[in-house]
């Protein structure tokens, strides 16, 4: 899978004219094809699909029109004073205020992704991460706890995709008896485009008859889909003013009262912030994460896919770009309504090239939710502690959150006070034996003690007995054809284990 944002290549004028002519033609051909797809679905579904196709046409025509890079490297300015606020400088609101503040908030979780990269069927949010609780369980517990403690009613909104909606609807029934209102809406469903012909590959408009022909267009689609669902207007009518948006697999993305206070009770000398991006200090493990820049007098998100090849090393430099985007975002509801109605959302298009199982090369046009920052007024960054960024993308992340490094309370994870330093260990588990959740779990009789671990690398056919303790730097490598069983009760501190170690039941 290759993601890139348009970059400029010089082409001889003859071939440029040819490309222009074929592109002009492409839009007309796509419009005809979309009309044909619409005609194949039941009339009741047409208005909704027509709306989604309008969004797709907008993206597609911009994709055809945009030549050259979406930004020029030389125009990046230094972040101005006050553009990024240090979290430690925020004040904590008094308890009597919190109830009123939370009545102004909506919590949105991006729930469009599947668990396929971790070898799981269905939505990623139903993978069990700790004590047999799923991402969704933990989110629901957090918000229910807030509602109980502060006697308020913060709603939880899930943005699903056509991939996750059915399964999610079944799962959320089990939360019926809780003090929590859950709303869902679907992000758009767009047709995948053949890379050569630039035409949709779908034979008809029935998404589920050929699911590979469709895709959800990235979480940048949130604003329009939220607006189209009617939920945005409903919450504005109720007097709510901000939403907190985050990925459902980021276990650190809990409702933060200090940031909410910054938004609801701003310094009278300053602009009201319509948009806040939580950023955190970049380490060498985060060099690919998007960063905040000042560009044409506005803060905006810069993703690695937008960076010209010759500047990629600059982009990855921890000294030049100190922060990266956690994708925990706070946006003002009436400002979302304004930018959607004005049509002023112009997020950079991410061109995602995919190779389907039948050998077809397709492109998907996507956008990122944080890229809308430049479309809002008074956008700022807040430099938050690393603990607010705890994503579970791989089983190596799962190992950390299942271990004694964290304690769990009311759906929120906190680093154990026994750990002497706040950074999380660096863990690399070999893809062949550990990538899928089921395989991963079968290799640990119990999750090892990681309190004093700095770095763990495991490669090959390795299993762990009960009550293993890993400290410092531990590297375990079983060569091809060999197997290593780490015995129960073993304490490995600054050790390299290689070769073959079998433990058989006597």
UniProtKB/TrEMBL annotation:
Catalysed transformations (reactions): alpha-D-glucose 1-phosphate + UTP + H(+) = UDP-alpha-D-glucose + diphosphate
This enzyme's EC code(s): 2.7.7.9
Keywords, alphabetical: Nucleotidyltransferase, Transferase
Biological process, per Gene Ontology: UDP-alpha-D-glucose metabolic process
GO molecular function terms noted in the UniProt entry: UTP:glucose-1-phosphate uridylyltransferase activity
Top EC class of this enzyme: transferase
Transferase as UniProt keyword: yes
Record field: transmembrane: none
Region (Disordered) location: 1-22
Family: Belongs to the UDPGP type 1 family.
Subunit structure, interactors included: Homooctamer.
Record's function text: UTP--glucose-1-phosphate uridylyltransferase catalyzing the conversion of glucose-1-phosphate into UDP-glucose, a crucial precursor for the production of glycogen.
Name the UniProt record assigns to this protein: UTP--glucose-1-phosphate uridylyltransferase
